[in-house]
Amino acid sequence: MSEETRQVLEMLANGKVTVQEAEQLLRAVEMPGQADEKKAEPRYFRILVNKPARDGRKAENVNIRVPMTVVRGGLRLGALVPGMLGKKKIQLDNGTELDLSKVTYTDLEAMIKDIGELTVDVDGDAQVRIRCE
């Protein structure tokens, strides 16, 4: 039993709150923990690209929403055919290399679940935001 739950029950026992008020307080105390436990599976992979106007060109905005079933299907296909990637190593900004030939489907699934929202600056002016929703 959490400390908050114990305090609500003590207030009820001491007559400081009614049964209805205690019930509302208990629901409010329990909600944050339940929201963390029941995190919904993402249904879409959204990619937003914003490139501001520059050198007389108009601003460009791209908004792509891909169903997770398509993303996962592509990941499975990539796992089956590892030679599909022409460039197997990617140089990251921090100097390390990411070897795509060693990334497993399980690793990719974990990345999808943990991605949250990612923002990447490209060429100093364009911005790419990626998130699962």
List the helices and strands and how they pair.
Blueprint: H1 3-13, H2 19-37, E1 44-51, E2 60-67, H3 68-80, E3 89-91, E4 97-99, H4 105-114, E5 117-122, E6 126-132
Antiparallel strand pairs: 1-2, 1-6, 3-4, 5-6
Helix pairs in contact: 1-2
Structure in words:
The protein starts with a helix and ends with a strand. The model has no long low-confidence stretch (mean pLDDT 76). The strands form 2 sheets. It has a 4-stranded antiparallel beta sheet with strand order 2-1-6-5. The protein has 133 residues and is of the alpha+beta class. It contains 4 helices and 6 strands.
Structural class: alpha+beta
Q: Give the terminus-to-terminus CA distance.
A: 33 Å
Radius of gyration, rounded? 24 Å
Helix content: 25-40%
Portion in beta strands: 25-35%
Low-pLDDT segments: none
- Average pLDDT works out at 76
Secondary-structure element pattern, one letter each: HHEEHEEHEE
Shape verdict: elongated
What count of helical segments does DSSP give? 4
Summarize the biggest pleated sheet: 4 strands, antiparallel
Number of strands: 6
What is the strand arrangement across the widest sheet? 2-1-6-5
Which structural traits does this protein have?
elongated, alpha+beta, 6 strands, four-stranded antiparallel beta sheet, 133 residues, two-stranded antiparallel ribbon
